[in-house]
Amino acid sequence: PTSMDSLLSQLAHLAAWTARECPNVQAVTVDTSPYHHAGANEAQDVAIAVATGVEYLRAMTTAGMDLSDAAGQIEFRLRVGTQQFLSIAKLRALRRLWANVLAASGQPEAAAGARIHVQISDLALTQRDPYVNVLRNTIAAFSACAGGADAVTCAPFDKLLGWPDEFSRRIARNTMLILQQEAGLHHVADPAGGSWFLDQLTEQLADKAWGIFQEIERRGGMSKSLESGWIASEIGAVFARRAKDVACRKQGVTGVSEFPNVAEEPVAREQPSQQQLRSAVAERVSRVKEQASCAHELDELATGADKVEAAVQAALAGATVGQMSQALGFARSQSVCCTPLAPERLAAPFERLRDACDAWQQEHGRRPMVFLAKFGSPADFTARAMFAKNFFEAGGFETFGDVGFADAQSAADAFAASGAACAVICSSDKVYPECVPVAARLLKTQGARTVVLAGAPGDNEAAWRAAGVDRFIFMKCDVLATLEEMLREQAVLIP
Protein backbone atom coordinates (compact mmCIF):
# COMPACT_ATOMS: atom_id res chain seq x y z
CA PRO A 1 0.00 0.00 0.00
CA THR A 2 1.16 3.50 -0.77
CA SER A 3 -0.17 6.97 -1.47
CA MET A 4 -1.57 8.04 -4.82
CA ASP A 5 0.94 10.88 -5.08
CA SER A 6 3.80 8.44 -4.61
CA LEU A 7 2.41 6.11 -7.26
CA LEU A 8 1.91 8.91 -9.78
CA SER A 9 5.43 10.18 -9.11
CA GLN A 10 6.87 6.72 -9.79
CA LEU A 11 4.75 6.50 -12.94
CA ALA A 12 6.17 9.79 -14.19
CA HIS A 13 9.75 8.70 -13.52
CA LEU A 14 9.19 5.41 -15.35
CA ALA A 15 7.58 7.16 -18.33
CA ALA A 16 10.42 9.68 -18.61
CA TRP A 17 13.05 6.94 -18.49
CA THR A 18 11.18 4.86 -21.08
CA ALA A 19 10.72 7.81 -23.45
CA ARG A 20 14.45 8.47 -23.23
CA GLU A 21 15.82 4.92 -23.32
CA CYS A 22 13.10 2.96 -25.17
CA PRO A 23 11.31 5.44 -27.46
CA ASN A 24 9.11 2.82 -29.16
CA VAL A 25 7.77 1.39 -25.91
CA GLN A 26 4.75 2.55 -23.90
CA ALA A 27 5.29 2.39 -20.14
CA VAL A 28 1.87 3.61 -19.01
CA THR A 29 -1.35 1.63 -19.43
CA VAL A 30 -4.82 3.02 -18.81
CA ASP A 31 -6.70 -0.20 -18.06
CA THR A 32 -10.45 0.07 -17.53
CA SER A 33 -10.97 -3.68 -17.02
CA PRO A 34 -11.85 -3.39 -13.30
CA TYR A 35 -14.57 -0.86 -14.09
CA HIS A 36 -15.89 -2.81 -17.05
CA HIS A 37 -16.10 -6.08 -15.12
CA ALA A 38 -17.86 -4.29 -12.27
CA GLY A 39 -20.59 -3.33 -14.74
CA ALA A 40 -19.64 0.05 -16.21
CA ASN A 41 -21.51 0.87 -19.40
CA GLU A 42 -19.76 2.02 -22.56
CA ALA A 43 -20.05 5.74 -21.80
CA GLN A 44 -18.64 5.26 -18.30
CA ASP A 45 -15.86 3.08 -19.69
CA VAL A 46 -14.77 5.76 -22.15
CA ALA A 47 -15.11 8.58 -19.62
CA ILE A 48 -13.04 6.73 -17.02
CA ALA A 49 -10.37 5.94 -19.62
CA VAL A 50 -10.10 9.60 -20.62
CA ALA A 51 -10.15 10.84 -17.00
CA THR A 52 -7.44 8.36 -16.00
CA GLY A 53 -5.37 9.32 -19.02
CA VAL A 54 -5.68 13.01 -18.13
CA GLU A 55 -4.53 12.31 -14.56
CA TYR A 56 -1.51 10.42 -15.86
CA LEU A 57 -0.74 13.22 -18.31
CA ARG A 58 -0.80 15.75 -15.48
CA ALA A 59 1.56 13.61 -13.41
CA MET A 60 4.02 13.25 -16.28
CA THR A 61 3.98 16.89 -17.37
CA THR A 62 4.26 18.07 -13.76
CA ALA A 63 7.41 15.96 -13.50
CA GLY A 64 8.83 17.83 -16.50
CA MET A 65 7.91 15.67 -19.48
CA ASP A 66 6.87 17.27 -22.76
CA LEU A 67 3.17 16.73 -23.47
CA SER A 68 3.85 14.94 -26.76
CA ASP A 69 6.28 12.56 -25.08
CA ALA A 70 3.85 11.99 -22.21
CA ALA A 71 0.96 11.26 -24.57
CA GLY A 72 3.15 8.85 -26.52
CA GLN A 73 3.77 6.82 -23.36
CA ILE A 74 0.08 6.00 -22.84
CA GLU A 75 -1.65 2.89 -24.11
CA PHE A 76 -5.36 2.30 -23.47
CA ARG A 77 -6.53 -1.19 -22.58
CA LEU A 78 -10.27 -1.69 -22.94
CA ARG A 79 -12.64 -4.65 -22.82
CA VAL A 80 -15.34 -5.31 -25.40
CA GLY A 81 -18.15 -7.83 -25.27
CA THR A 82 -21.05 -9.07 -27.33
CA GLN A 83 -22.79 -5.74 -27.97
CA GLN A 84 -21.22 -5.34 -31.37
CA PHE A 85 -22.21 -1.85 -32.47
CA LEU A 86 -21.76 -0.30 -29.02
CA SER A 87 -18.30 -1.87 -28.80
CA ILE A 88 -17.29 -0.44 -32.16
CA ALA A 89 -18.65 2.97 -31.19
CA LYS A 90 -16.84 2.83 -27.85
CA LEU A 91 -13.42 2.53 -29.44
CA ARG A 92 -14.19 5.26 -31.97
CA ALA A 93 -15.52 7.55 -29.23
CA LEU A 94 -12.38 7.05 -27.14
CA ARG A 95 -10.16 8.05 -30.05
CA ARG A 96 -12.28 11.14 -30.65
CA LEU A 97 -12.30 12.29 -27.03
CA TRP A 98 -8.61 11.61 -26.47
CA ALA A 99 -7.79 13.64 -29.56
CA ASN A 100 -9.95 16.45 -28.17
CA VAL A 101 -8.09 16.35 -24.85
CA LEU A 102 -4.68 16.58 -26.51
CA ALA A 103 -5.82 19.30 -28.89
CA ALA A 104 -7.24 21.33 -25.98
CA SER A 105 -3.90 20.93 -24.20
CA GLY A 106 -2.14 22.75 -27.02
CA GLN A 107 -0.63 19.78 -28.81
CA PRO A 108 -2.91 18.98 -31.79
CA GLU A 109 -0.05 17.27 -33.59
CA ALA A 110 0.07 14.73 -30.78
CA ALA A 111 -3.60 13.92 -31.31
CA ALA A 112 -2.97 11.56 -34.21
CA GLY A 113 -4.65 8.78 -32.28
CA ALA A 114 -4.74 6.79 -29.10
CA ARG A 115 -3.04 3.42 -29.01
CA ILE A 116 -5.74 0.92 -28.00
CA HIS A 117 -5.26 -2.67 -26.90
CA VAL A 118 -8.55 -4.58 -26.67
CA GLN A 119 -9.15 -7.68 -24.60
CA ILE A 120 -12.28 -9.81 -24.71
CA SER A 121 -14.65 -9.14 -21.83
CA ASP A 122 -15.24 -11.76 -19.13
CA LEU A 123 -18.58 -10.14 -18.26
CA ALA A 124 -20.65 -12.10 -20.78
CA LEU A 125 -18.65 -15.35 -20.71
CA THR A 126 -20.18 -18.45 -19.15
CA GLN A 127 -18.99 -21.59 -17.43
CA ARG A 128 -22.09 -23.47 -18.56
CA ASP A 129 -22.25 -24.42 -22.24
CA PRO A 130 -18.80 -22.82 -22.66
CA TYR A 131 -18.60 -23.52 -26.39
CA VAL A 132 -20.98 -20.59 -26.90
CA ASN A 133 -18.05 -18.48 -25.69
CA VAL A 134 -16.44 -19.12 -29.09
CA LEU A 135 -19.24 -17.10 -30.68
CA ARG A 136 -19.05 -14.42 -28.00
CA ASN A 137 -15.31 -14.09 -28.48
CA THR A 138 -15.70 -13.90 -32.26
CA ILE A 139 -18.26 -11.10 -32.05
CA ALA A 140 -16.07 -9.19 -29.60
CA ALA A 141 -12.92 -9.68 -31.67
CA PHE A 142 -14.68 -8.50 -34.82
CA SER A 143 -15.97 -5.45 -32.97
CA ALA A 144 -12.46 -4.63 -31.77
CA CYS A 145 -11.04 -4.89 -35.29
CA ALA A 146 -13.86 -2.88 -36.85
CA GLY A 147 -13.51 -0.26 -34.12
CA GLY A 148 -9.86 0.32 -34.96
CA ALA A 149 -8.01 -1.47 -32.16
CA ASP A 150 -4.23 -1.59 -32.53
CA ALA A 151 -3.97 -4.95 -30.76
CA VAL A 152 -6.55 -7.57 -29.82
CA THR A 153 -6.23 -10.41 -27.30
CA CYS A 154 -8.73 -13.22 -27.81
CA ALA A 155 -8.88 -15.51 -24.78
CA PRO A 156 -9.66 -19.26 -24.92
CA PHE A 157 -13.34 -20.10 -24.53
CA ASP A 158 -12.69 -22.28 -21.46
CA LYS A 159 -10.62 -19.76 -19.50
CA LEU A 160 -13.20 -19.66 -16.68
CA LEU A 161 -12.94 -23.41 -16.10
CA GLY A 162 -9.23 -23.76 -15.33
CA TRP A 163 -6.13 -24.20 -17.49
CA PRO A 164 -7.18 -23.82 -21.16
CA ASP A 165 -6.37 -26.89 -23.23
CA GLU A 166 -4.61 -27.06 -26.60
CA PHE A 167 -7.88 -27.05 -28.55
CA SER A 168 -9.25 -23.90 -26.93
CA ARG A 169 -5.93 -22.08 -27.32
CA ARG A 170 -5.84 -23.00 -31.01
CA ILE A 171 -9.41 -21.76 -31.53
CA ALA A 172 -8.49 -18.45 -29.86
CA ARG A 173 -5.49 -18.00 -32.17
CA ASN A 174 -7.43 -19.03 -35.26
CA THR A 175 -10.27 -16.62 -34.50
CA MET A 176 -7.93 -13.68 -35.01
CA LEU A 177 -6.22 -15.25 -38.03
CA ILE A 178 -9.55 -15.85 -39.76
CA LEU A 179 -10.70 -12.27 -39.11
CA GLN A 180 -7.41 -11.01 -40.48
CA GLN A 181 -6.65 -13.34 -43.37
CA GLU A 182 -10.10 -14.48 -44.51
CA ALA A 183 -12.35 -11.59 -43.51
CA GLY A 184 -9.64 -9.14 -44.59
CA LEU A 185 -10.26 -6.65 -41.80
CA HIS A 186 -6.61 -5.58 -41.77
CA HIS A 187 -6.92 -4.34 -45.37
CA VAL A 188 -9.37 -1.57 -44.40
CA ALA A 189 -8.22 1.55 -42.57
CA ASP A 190 -11.62 2.23 -41.01
CA PRO A 191 -14.09 -0.66 -41.49
CA ALA A 192 -16.86 1.26 -39.73
CA GLY A 193 -16.29 4.49 -41.64
CA GLY A 194 -19.20 5.77 -43.71
CA SER A 195 -21.89 4.06 -41.66
CA TRP A 196 -24.45 6.69 -40.68
CA PHE A 197 -25.72 4.51 -37.86
CA LEU A 198 -22.26 4.00 -36.35
CA ASP A 199 -21.33 7.65 -36.83
CA GLN A 200 -24.47 8.71 -34.97
CA LEU A 201 -23.95 6.11 -32.26
CA THR A 202 -20.33 7.21 -31.84
CA GLU A 203 -21.38 10.85 -31.56
CA GLN A 204 -24.07 10.08 -28.97
CA LEU A 205 -21.72 7.90 -26.97
CA ALA A 206 -18.93 10.48 -27.11
CA ASP A 207 -21.29 13.24 -25.92
CA LYS A 208 -22.47 11.14 -22.99
CA ALA A 209 -18.94 10.07 -22.08
CA TRP A 210 -17.70 13.66 -22.26
CA GLY A 211 -20.39 14.69 -19.79
CA ILE A 212 -19.29 11.97 -17.35
CA PHE A 213 -15.66 12.98 -17.83
CA GLN A 214 -16.52 16.59 -17.00
CA GLU A 215 -18.29 15.45 -13.83
CA ILE A 216 -15.20 13.47 -12.81
CA GLU A 217 -13.06 16.55 -13.38
CA ARG A 218 -15.51 18.70 -11.40
CA ARG A 219 -15.10 16.29 -8.49
CA GLY A 220 -11.33 16.73 -8.52
CA GLY A 221 -10.22 14.13 -11.03
CA MET A 222 -10.14 10.37 -11.20
CA SER A 223 -8.29 9.78 -7.92
CA LYS A 224 -10.66 11.93 -5.89
CA SER A 225 -13.70 10.37 -7.56
CA LEU A 226 -12.43 6.92 -6.62
CA GLU A 227 -11.62 7.89 -3.05
CA SER A 228 -15.03 9.48 -2.53
CA GLY A 229 -16.81 6.32 -3.70
CA TRP A 230 -18.63 8.17 -6.48
CA ILE A 231 -17.23 5.96 -9.26
CA ALA A 232 -18.22 2.74 -7.47
CA SER A 233 -21.68 4.13 -6.73
CA GLU A 234 -22.34 5.15 -10.34
CA ILE A 235 -21.11 1.85 -11.76
CA GLY A 236 -23.04 -0.11 -9.14
CA ALA A 237 -26.28 1.61 -10.13
CA VAL A 238 -25.73 0.79 -13.80
CA PHE A 239 -24.87 -2.83 -13.10
CA ALA A 240 -27.89 -3.25 -10.83
CA ARG A 241 -30.17 -2.29 -13.72
CA ARG A 242 -28.39 -4.64 -16.09
CA ALA A 243 -28.45 -7.48 -13.57
CA LYS A 244 -32.20 -6.92 -13.18
CA ASP A 245 -32.62 -7.26 -16.94
CA VAL A 246 -30.71 -10.55 -16.85
CA ALA A 247 -32.71 -11.79 -13.87
CA CYS A 248 -35.95 -11.06 -15.74
CA ARG A 249 -34.49 -12.48 -18.98
CA LYS A 250 -35.02 -9.16 -20.72
CA GLN A 251 -31.35 -9.66 -21.56
CA GLY A 252 -30.75 -13.34 -22.15
CA VAL A 253 -27.58 -15.37 -21.67
CA THR A 254 -27.57 -18.19 -24.21
CA GLY A 255 -26.97 -21.59 -22.68
CA VAL A 256 -27.61 -20.31 -19.16
CA SER A 257 -30.79 -18.27 -18.77
CA GLU A 258 -31.95 -19.03 -22.33
CA PHE A 259 -31.94 -22.51 -23.92
CA PRO A 260 -30.20 -24.22 -20.99
CA ASN A 261 -29.23 -27.87 -21.23
CA VAL A 262 -29.28 -29.49 -17.79
CA ALA A 263 -28.06 -32.76 -19.31
CA GLU A 264 -24.90 -31.26 -20.80
CA GLU A 265 -21.64 -33.02 -20.11
CA PRO A 266 -19.47 -30.76 -17.97
CA VAL A 267 -16.28 -29.49 -19.60
CA ALA A 268 -13.46 -30.49 -17.26
CA ARG A 269 -10.20 -28.58 -17.10
CA GLU A 270 -7.24 -28.92 -14.77
CA GLN A 271 -7.60 -26.58 -11.81
CA PRO A 272 -4.42 -24.80 -10.69
CA SER A 273 -3.50 -25.26 -7.05
CA GLN A 274 -3.16 -21.80 -5.55
CA GLN A 275 -1.32 -23.20 -2.56
CA GLN A 276 1.23 -24.98 -4.75
CA LEU A 277 1.73 -21.87 -6.85
CA ARG A 278 2.27 -19.70 -3.77
CA SER A 279 4.68 -22.23 -2.30
CA ALA A 280 6.65 -22.44 -5.55
CA VAL A 281 6.89 -18.66 -5.80
CA ALA A 282 7.94 -18.32 -2.16
CA GLU A 283 10.63 -20.98 -2.64
CA ARG A 284 11.91 -19.31 -5.79
CA VAL A 285 12.01 -15.86 -4.17
CA SER A 286 13.82 -17.26 -1.14
CA ARG A 287 16.39 -18.92 -3.39
CA VAL A 288 16.92 -15.70 -5.36
CA LYS A 289 17.42 -13.71 -2.17
CA GLU A 290 20.02 -16.18 -0.93
CA GLN A 291 21.96 -16.13 -4.19
CA ALA A 292 21.68 -12.43 -5.00
CA SER A 293 24.09 -9.80 -3.80
CA CYS A 294 22.22 -6.57 -4.34
CA ALA A 295 22.62 -4.53 -1.14
CA HIS A 296 24.53 -1.77 -2.93
CA GLU A 297 21.94 -1.51 -5.71
CA LEU A 298 19.08 -1.39 -3.19
CA ASP A 299 20.83 1.40 -1.27
CA GLU A 300 21.20 3.32 -4.52
CA LEU A 301 17.51 2.77 -5.24
CA ALA A 302 16.58 4.12 -1.81
CA THR A 303 18.80 7.21 -1.95
CA GLY A 304 19.55 7.92 -5.62
CA ALA A 305 17.83 10.47 -7.83
CA ASP A 306 17.17 8.29 -10.89
CA LYS A 307 14.82 5.73 -9.39
CA VAL A 308 14.06 3.87 -12.60
CA GLU A 309 17.68 3.34 -13.62
CA ALA A 310 18.47 2.26 -10.07
CA ALA A 311 15.53 -0.18 -10.15
CA VAL A 312 16.81 -1.65 -13.42
CA GLN A 313 20.25 -2.19 -11.94
CA ALA A 314 18.77 -3.68 -8.76
CA ALA A 315 16.67 -6.11 -10.81
CA LEU A 316 19.71 -7.12 -12.85
CA ALA A 317 21.53 -7.77 -9.58
CA GLY A 318 18.76 -10.13 -8.49
CA ALA A 319 16.59 -7.95 -6.25
CA THR A 320 12.99 -9.04 -5.87
CA VAL A 321 9.98 -6.80 -6.41
CA GLY A 322 9.33 -6.83 -2.67
CA GLN A 323 12.87 -5.71 -1.90
CA MET A 324 12.65 -2.89 -4.43
CA SER A 325 9.26 -1.77 -3.11
CA GLN A 326 10.68 -1.66 0.41
CA ALA A 327 13.68 0.34 -0.78
CA LEU A 328 11.38 2.82 -2.50
CA GLY A 329 9.50 3.32 0.76
CA PHE A 330 6.14 2.04 -0.45
CA ALA A 331 5.56 0.10 2.77
CA ARG A 332 6.13 3.26 4.85
CA SER A 333 3.80 5.46 2.80
CA GLN A 334 0.29 6.44 3.71
CA SER A 335 -2.04 4.25 1.67
CA VAL A 336 -5.08 5.46 -0.24
CA CYS A 337 -8.51 3.96 0.38
CA CYS A 338 -11.48 3.80 -1.97
CA THR A 339 -14.74 1.93 -2.28
CA PRO A 340 -13.92 -1.43 -3.88
CA LEU A 341 -15.47 -2.48 -7.17
CA ALA A 342 -17.31 -5.79 -7.22
CA PRO A 343 -16.82 -7.76 -10.47
CA GLU A 344 -19.64 -10.14 -11.36
CA ARG A 345 -20.33 -12.05 -14.57
CA LEU A 346 -23.87 -11.75 -15.89
CA ALA A 347 -24.38 -15.51 -15.90
CA ALA A 348 -22.98 -16.11 -12.42
CA PRO A 349 -26.26 -15.94 -10.41
CA PHE A 350 -27.93 -18.54 -12.65
CA GLU A 351 -24.80 -20.70 -12.66
CA ARG A 352 -24.78 -20.76 -8.87
CA LEU A 353 -28.29 -22.23 -8.96
CA ARG A 354 -27.15 -24.85 -11.47
CA ASP A 355 -24.20 -25.70 -9.21
CA ALA A 356 -26.55 -26.14 -6.24
CA CYS A 357 -28.78 -28.48 -8.23
CA ASP A 358 -25.77 -30.47 -9.41
CA ALA A 359 -24.70 -30.93 -5.80
CA TRP A 360 -28.26 -31.97 -4.90
CA GLN A 361 -28.19 -34.54 -7.69
CA GLN A 362 -24.90 -35.96 -6.42
CA GLU A 363 -26.42 -36.39 -2.96
CA HIS A 364 -29.93 -37.59 -3.86
CA GLY A 365 -29.40 -39.29 -7.20
CA ARG A 366 -31.73 -36.96 -9.10
CA ARG A 367 -32.38 -33.31 -9.75
CA PRO A 368 -35.25 -31.33 -8.23
CA MET A 369 -38.10 -32.08 -10.62
CA VAL A 370 -40.90 -30.06 -12.20
CA PHE A 371 -43.91 -31.75 -13.77
CA LEU A 372 -45.43 -30.01 -16.82
CA ALA A 373 -49.20 -30.47 -16.77
CA LYS A 374 -50.22 -29.71 -20.36
CA PHE A 375 -53.88 -29.25 -21.25
CA GLY A 376 -55.66 -28.96 -24.58
CA SER A 377 -54.17 -29.45 -28.01
CA PRO A 378 -50.47 -29.00 -28.87
CA ALA A 379 -51.38 -25.62 -30.30
CA ASP A 380 -52.69 -24.66 -26.86
CA PHE A 381 -49.81 -25.81 -24.67
CA THR A 382 -46.60 -25.97 -26.75
CA ALA A 383 -45.50 -22.34 -26.45
CA ARG A 384 -46.01 -22.09 -22.70
CA ALA A 385 -44.64 -25.58 -22.07
CA MET A 386 -41.41 -24.61 -23.83
CA PHE A 387 -41.35 -21.36 -21.87
CA ALA A 388 -41.76 -23.25 -18.59
CA LYS A 389 -39.13 -25.82 -19.55
CA ASN A 390 -36.52 -23.14 -20.28
CA PHE A 391 -37.60 -21.19 -17.20
CA PHE A 392 -37.00 -24.00 -14.72
CA GLU A 393 -34.02 -25.62 -16.41
CA ALA A 394 -32.24 -22.25 -16.19
CA GLY A 395 -32.21 -22.90 -12.44
CA GLY A 396 -31.12 -26.53 -12.68
CA PHE A 397 -34.53 -28.20 -12.34
CA GLU A 398 -35.34 -31.22 -14.48
CA THR A 399 -38.66 -30.91 -16.31
CA PHE A 400 -40.74 -33.74 -17.71
CA GLY A 401 -44.21 -34.34 -19.09
CA ASP A 402 -44.17 -35.04 -22.82
CA VAL A 403 -47.88 -35.54 -23.41
CA GLY A 404 -50.96 -33.40 -23.13
CA PHE A 405 -53.88 -34.29 -20.90
CA ALA A 406 -57.55 -34.31 -21.79
CA ASP A 407 -58.71 -33.81 -18.21
CA ALA A 408 -57.38 -32.63 -14.86
CA GLN A 409 -57.68 -36.01 -13.14
CA SER A 410 -55.35 -37.68 -15.66
CA ALA A 411 -52.79 -34.93 -15.12
CA ALA A 412 -53.06 -35.24 -11.33
CA ASP A 413 -52.60 -39.01 -11.48
CA ALA A 414 -49.53 -38.65 -13.70
CA PHE A 415 -48.11 -36.07 -11.32
CA ALA A 416 -48.61 -38.37 -8.34
CA ALA A 417 -46.62 -41.09 -10.09
CA SER A 418 -43.79 -38.73 -11.06
CA GLY A 419 -42.27 -38.04 -7.66
CA ALA A 420 -42.06 -34.32 -8.39
CA ALA A 421 -42.85 -31.67 -5.80
CA CYS A 422 -43.86 -28.95 -8.26
CA ALA A 423 -46.38 -28.90 -11.10
CA VAL A 424 -46.74 -26.27 -13.83
CA ILE A 425 -50.06 -25.85 -15.61
CA CYS A 426 -49.42 -25.10 -19.30
CA SER A 427 -52.08 -24.17 -21.84
CA SER A 428 -53.66 -21.20 -23.60
CA ASP A 429 -55.70 -18.33 -22.22
CA LYS A 430 -58.89 -19.78 -23.69
CA VAL A 431 -58.38 -23.11 -21.88
CA TYR A 432 -57.29 -21.72 -18.51
CA PRO A 433 -60.66 -20.50 -17.12
CA GLU A 434 -62.10 -23.99 -17.38
CA CYS A 435 -59.13 -26.16 -16.38
CA VAL A 436 -57.14 -24.13 -13.83
CA PRO A 437 -59.53 -24.24 -10.84
CA VAL A 438 -60.03 -28.01 -11.14
CA ALA A 439 -56.42 -28.87 -12.06
CA ALA A 440 -54.88 -26.79 -9.28
CA ARG A 441 -57.14 -28.37 -6.66
CA LEU A 442 -56.46 -31.93 -7.84
CA LEU A 443 -52.71 -31.38 -8.10
CA LYS A 444 -52.67 -30.10 -4.53
CA THR A 445 -54.70 -33.13 -3.46
CA GLN A 446 -52.09 -35.40 -5.05
CA GLY A 447 -49.29 -33.80 -3.02
CA ALA A 448 -48.03 -30.89 -5.12
CA ARG A 449 -46.08 -28.62 -2.80
CA THR A 450 -46.10 -25.85 -5.39
CA VAL A 451 -48.54 -25.32 -8.26
CA VAL A 452 -47.38 -22.85 -10.90
CA LEU A 453 -49.32 -21.36 -13.79
CA ALA A 454 -47.45 -20.51 -17.00
CA GLY A 455 -48.87 -17.14 -18.01
CA ALA A 456 -50.01 -13.86 -16.50
CA PRO A 457 -53.24 -14.32 -14.50
CA GLY A 458 -54.80 -10.95 -15.22
CA ASP A 459 -58.09 -10.45 -13.36
CA ASN A 460 -58.21 -14.15 -12.39
CA GLU A 461 -55.30 -14.05 -9.95
CA ALA A 462 -57.33 -14.02 -6.73
CA ALA A 463 -59.67 -16.81 -7.85
CA TRP A 464 -56.85 -19.01 -9.11
CA ARG A 465 -54.80 -18.51 -5.97
CA ALA A 466 -57.84 -19.55 -3.96
CA ALA A 467 -58.07 -22.70 -6.10
CA GLY A 468 -54.48 -23.65 -5.24
CA VAL A 469 -52.13 -21.84 -7.66
CA ASP A 470 -49.07 -20.65 -5.72
CA ARG A 471 -47.06 -18.85 -8.40
CA PHE A 472 -47.37 -17.35 -11.85
CA ILE A 473 -44.51 -17.25 -14.37
CA PHE A 474 -44.65 -15.02 -17.42
CA MET A 475 -42.52 -12.83 -19.66
CA LYS A 476 -40.49 -10.23 -17.72
CA CYS A 477 -41.20 -11.73 -14.31
CA ASP A 478 -38.17 -12.06 -12.00
CA VAL A 479 -36.94 -15.48 -13.10
CA LEU A 480 -33.91 -15.55 -10.82
CA ALA A 481 -35.83 -14.64 -7.66
CA THR A 482 -38.55 -17.19 -8.44
CA LEU A 483 -36.03 -19.98 -8.98
CA GLU A 484 -34.13 -19.10 -5.80
CA GLU A 485 -37.34 -19.14 -3.75
CA MET A 486 -38.45 -22.47 -5.17
CA LEU A 487 -35.06 -24.07 -4.60
CA ARG A 488 -35.19 -22.91 -1.00
CA GLU A 489 -38.66 -24.39 -0.63
CA GLN A 490 -37.24 -27.74 -1.74
CA ALA A 491 -34.19 -27.36 0.55
CA VAL A 492 -31.79 -27.32 -2.42
CA LEU A 493 -30.67 -23.88 -1.29
CA ILE A 494 -30.28 -23.24 2.42
CA PRO A 495 -32.14 -20.06 3.48
Walkthrough of the structure:
The protein is 55% helix and 9% strand. The strands form two sheets. Strands 5, 6, 7, 8, 9 and 10 form a six-stranded parallel beta sheet that branches. A four-stranded parallel beta sheet has the order 1-2-3-4. It is elongated and about 90 Å long. It folds into three domains: 4-247, Alpha-Beta Barrel (TIM Barrel), CATH 3.20.20; 274-332, no CATH class; 348-489, Cobalamin-binding domain (Rossmann fold, 3-Layer(aba) Sandwich), CATH 3.40.50.280. The protein contains 20 helices and ten strands. 40% of the residues are buried.
Helices and strands in order, then pairings?
Layout lengths: L3 H18 L6 E4 L1 H5 L4 H21 L4 H6 L1 E7 L3 H21 L10 E6 L11 H15 L4 E3 L12 H17 L13 H23 L3 H7 L1 H18 L26 H18 L3 H9 L3 H10 L4 H8 L19 H17 L4 E7 L2 H16 L4 E3 L3 E2 L2 H11 L3 E5 L5 H14 L4 E5 L6 H7 L3 E3 L5 H11 L6
Parallel strand pairs: 1-2, 2-3, 3-4, 5-6, 5-7, 5-8, 8-9, 9-10
Helix pairs in contact: 1-3, 3-5, 3-8, 5-6, 5-8, 6-7, 12-13, 12-14, 15-20, 17-18, 18-19
